[in-house]
Amino acid sequence: MPSATLEKLSQDVKEIKVQLHRITHILQEDFELSDEVKKELKESRKQSLSEYIDHKDVLKEFT
Fold this sequence. Notes:
Blueprint: H1 2-28, H2 35-46, H3 55-62
């Protein structure tokens, strides 16, 4: 019985290694924002914080 547990553990560790390798590869890629997203970001930074809706108010509306 213990060998089956060790085999399962070994298989799980191998799967985690594969997933970690994929995540590492994705994070190493160079991503660039599209022009549309850059434009929206620039516009949002111009917006005053006073125009934002308070989180508590949003929660009240949906709960």
